[in-house]
Amino acid sequence: MSMRIRTSALTALTVAALAAGTVLTAPAAGAAPKAAAPKFLSASQLPPHPTSSWTAGPVTDGFPEELGFCVSTEGVPAYDYRHREFRTDLETSAVQLTVVTGTAAQAKALAKHYDDLIRTCADRIEESSPDVEAEGRDYGSLPVEEGARVRGLHTETSWGATDISLLSVGRDGRTVTVVEWGQMGDFGDAPVAAFKKTTTTAVKKLY
User: How far apart are CA 25 and CA 134, in angstroms?
Assistant: First the structure.
């Protein structure tokens, strides 16, 4: 999403994300045992921008604020969260999250939880903010490792700001990754095929 949506509707959309109501059952020891850290996308593996190159930030511990509109840690055990942000010189951005759980079963449940949050995000945005119209689209699953799914989200405010995001959730064993790409525009501006390639690369690259 562009900075206009992120500035003007931040509070409403974050509240919507936290109000999803889906809670995972935490095991007695939620934190995953330490293992090899999953690898992240590089800037060159993002959907190509027609006029600007991508810049990758450092890999950082914690959950990224950029995913707070649709995905959150609410009701999720204290897993190992790490993320990497990407930027262009224009209003296009991306972020990748990796979550290492304790078992493959926990990762499967978490991937479904995140996908459900993304699938219902548009409805929650409209319920929480009457000034924003939102629409979600399902772009299907990808046959990579234990699977991935790609979805789109378009938002338009009453004052005319329009933004498009592509989001995906994938899993490899006990690790889940979420990737989000966003810029100003609508569904016609979304590089769906390129984003599917990025998602496939992200899941394959984890280990």
Answer: 30
